[in-house]
Specification:
298 residues, alpha/beta, Rossmann fold, 2 domains, six-stranded parallel sheet, globular
Length: 298
Amino acid sequence: MSNTQLLDGKGLSDLIKNEIAQEVAKIKADGGKIPHLAAILVGHDGASETYVASKEKACTQVGFKSTILRFEDTITEKELLNEVHKLNVNPDIDGFIVQLPLPKHISDQKIIEAIDPAKDVDGFHPVNVGRMVIGLPAYISATPDGILELIRRYNIETKGKHCVVLGRSNIVGRPMANLLSHKGYPGDCTVTVCHSRTKNIPEITRTADILIVAMGQPEFVTAEMVKEGVVVIDVGITRVKSDLTKSGWKLLGDVKFDEVAPLCSYITPVPGGVGPLTIVSLLKNTLKAAKGEIYPKL
């Protein structure tokens, strides 16, 4: 199939940022409160620094207020819980995130559970996860939400389709499987979840109409593992050494792109597929928080 269509996450993220910016401009013109996103960053992890900087830049692009609170990795769990509490009760902050991973002496789960669900724009709090599972309005975590946005904006048919999800993480695999089995669009899929203990993965993936790959194993999916016309969404991104690039590194997805792409009706590139939409999801959730859409403001 030479008419493979690329799912352009980068282009789509620019389009959605523009839509959000227009809405913020209107809120401003009407004298409303400008959405305000805060981030807590503990320590000096390079990837976390990069993520938080790109979130700050995205806030500027759409006209949000943004605040970054930086703490050394010597901060105690109790002190960090206190900082979370301060953001929970600050009426000017609509939503906030605590950038993970945290230092070893701090429990990620304890910190996540301390966030007010109404301000949990990462969608990690058990209340938001529970609401999502039973189909109530909720903040959906960034990667699954970005994937739904791609499916929706490209009008990819989901009703009655067999969707295979490779990976069962709480951040991607599980929520993705849940969301695509919901009633309505994009949903109504028959979903199979495969993981490291699954037998005969290639047999299962060959039956997929939609294949979502979040294994964290570079180039795991090969041409023999897919059928013609499949929609492939590759969540994986791994930095590997390369002699062919200036930097000495290149980014690979979980799908062997060059050999799988010709068989697909749609496929996400890596980078530039799902990645750019994750920050957009955070902006969308912050806007919802500011408007009191999920949890009405008292």
